[in-house]
Amino acid sequence: MPLIETPFLTTVCGLEELAGHASREVSHVLSILDPDEPEPPAFGTYGEHARLEMRFHDIIEETAGHIVPTPDDVAKMLAFGRESEAEAGSLRHLLVHCHMGISRSTATMALLLGQSQPLLSADAIMQHILAMRERAWPNLRILEYGEAILGRGDEFTRAAGAIYRIQLERRPEIREFFVNVGRGREIEAADRA
Length: 193
What we know:
7 helices; 43% helix
């Protein structure tokens, strides 16, 4: 059960879950896809909705052969959130997805909620994200850019460290995986939390 009240419904999911949300009257979709991923066919069943499609890999460091999220990407996602809320009454249900619904999408939803409700602490927002997605592991790079754009210091990256720590306590075997795929800074954040 989510821990905070939002003025609109929120959903975070992965590609395989998209079809299951077709009947939930999703009004806005922020779609984060790998650069070579085809457009999900599930959106053909969603009815009318506003959608922003972003394409970059789920990485936090520059990596040869991969497209890293940029400050411009995060600014576009936050602009989509602002513009969606500004359309009086049109934002009823916001769905954010990435490949697995664990990293890029949870980071993005956290920032969108932080923008929508600036008085909420990043800790409360991250706990809300964890309640929505039990396996959440928010992408640190997206959070770093977003908290800078929102003028929230390092609030979201510190709160993410606590989420990483929880996940490592639940599944200690993933520590080595994240280090090996170039996400050691997230492990360091967990160790500091």
